Amino acid sequence: MPSVRTLRHCITPALATAVILGCASASANPHDSDPAQAFSTTTPIKHLVVIFQENVSFDHYFATYPVAANPSGEPAFHARPGTPSVNGLGEFLLAHNPNSANPARIDRSQPLTCDQDHAYGAEQKAFDGGLMDQFVEFTDVESCGAPDVSLPGLVMDYYDGNTVTALWNYAQAFALSDNSYGTTFGPSTPGALNLIAGQTHGATPSDVAGNTVGGTVIGDPNPALDDCSSTNPNNVTMAGRNIGDLLNAKGISWGWFQGGFRPSAVNGGVATCASATNNIGGAAIRDYSPHHEPFQYYASTSNPHHLAPSSTAAIGTAADQANHQYDLQDFWAAAKAGNLPAVSFLKAKEAQDGHAGYSDPLDEQTFLVDTINQLEKLPSWSSTAVIIAYDDSDGWYDHVMGPIVSQSADAANDALDGAGLCGSNSTGIYQDRCGFGPRLPLLVISPWAREDFVDHSVTSQSSILRFVEDNWQTGQIGDDSFDAKSGSLANMFDFSRRGEEPRVLFLDPSTGEPSNDGHGRH
Q1: The overall pTM is greater than 0.85
Q2: Separation of alpha carbons 96 and 99, rounded Å
Q3: Is-contact 150 114, C-beta < 8 A?
């Protein structure tokens, strides 16, 4: 396993005195035309790129890290000597698990699996007060039709470094957390809202069966402020502030960039989002999911008609019709123009977001590697941090329960500590925000990330929100947001690296292994 490379391996003798990133042509000062450099930050990070993926527990991808089975014919992962271990599944939990089925390795030949049950209450029941022994009974879904594989006790199973090879390579070259959690229990929308606001309360309508309770989101309602949401009287809006509002108040550039956001058609000013991409199994999967786009729930940050930015130069700015909500192609247009926003959230097309049932780890890997390879070649890479995070666990087994920093006592929906209870009582201002929820993967990829490092600090999805607030000094959300309850990501960085050449690691998007040509494939 080669060590992560610094850029000196790319610099030709004729260019040895210049700063050349990713072997691309660049001026001696690549930041001269980068607007984000002008914003005051508390760290050297001037560009944060959050890649927000779907539905993976920590054990589902990192249960045996850094030891992979390495069967013949599959991409191999061999850890460096001294690679730190994680709080994963040791021999005892693999062979004598307290659940009614033991965890089993899913082979790379079986990337398509069923979507598991990841409802707010079902996940709490699976945790069984911290015993972590009721996953098969409450979140397991074993059969869902071809081409998805049907395996007994599927919810317990995991991939290793022969399938999620790129993520294991990024973990070894940069920083991985094994103690980060969903801010609350539940599916995609709560996770997305907790990422940008640390708050799932404030929904209207306040009570929609399975989706909102007493004004708190526990399910996946679509945003009412989005033409591409299905017509439904139960679509919701959110009150309160999000990180976009705080960044706008400081005049800091930002954007949410999602695959399929660009309309496939516009009729009478109303957008339709019907573009689709085939996944690895050949199924045509619609690109855009409205309930994965959290800023569309807020009037202050929504772009209901999916209007394109008025120009590439306007991407990330407040005074534009797109209102910070864009298609992924707009992110790359801004990158090519040297105009990346200070804060960018990237959401893959559904076929590549990793969500079981319609996506898979191999399609996801293609997206992650293609994205990071390109980011590493930009002049802005030396001041960039990429965070790979996930919206929820999908209900997949994980053996670690995090701290409960927000209790709840909803008789109909809470179940962590018995019927109607998450904790002994409710200590939060708002009900139905039981959390922290399931343990999720979180990686930091950056020239400033620690190398071959596993962070054990307790963090959550809302720790990403806190990093933005702290780095750009925006102030906090308030209103009992989880930003004030979530730990810092600071331990995953080493800002004493000043003066070092920026590290890069180019991978092959198909195999996840270091690329032969050293430049990645595009």
Answers
A1: yes
A2: 9
A3: yes
Dihedral, CA of residue 319, residue 324, residue 325 and residue 329, to nearest 10: 100
Say if residue 66 is preceded by a cis peptide, omega within 30 of 0.
Answer: yes
Is the confidence at residue 434, as pLDDT, over 50?
yes
Q: What is the DSSP letter of 429?
A: S
Q: CA-CA distance, 446 to 311, in Å (whole number)?
A: 29
Which CATH code is given to the segment(s) 5-504?
A: 3.40.720.10
Task: Assign 3-class secondary structure to 334-388.
Answer: HHHCCCCCCEEEEECCHHHCCCCCCCCHHHHHHHHHHHHHHHHCCHHHHHEEEEE
Please give the backbone phi and psi of residue 326, each rounded to the nearest 5 degrees, phi first.
Answer: -140, 170
% residues pLDDT > 70 (the chain): 91
Per-residue pLDDT for 11 more than 50?
no
What value does the mean pLDDT of the chain take?
92
pLDDT of residue 428: 67
What's the token pair of residue 458?
């307790």
Token pair of 71 as six digits: 């069967």
CA distance 434 to 401: 13
Distance CA 228, CA 182 (A): 27
Instruction: Tell me the domain boundaries of the chain.
Output: 5-504
Q: 326 forms bridges with which residues in the sheet?
A: 257
343-376 confidence digits (pLDDT tens): 999 999 999 999 999 999 999 999 999 999 999 9
Cross-strand pairs, 140: none
Strand order through the sheet with 384-390: 325-327, 254-258, 343-347, 47-53, 384-390, 442-445, 175-177, 453-455
DSSP 127: H
pLDDT of residue 279: 97
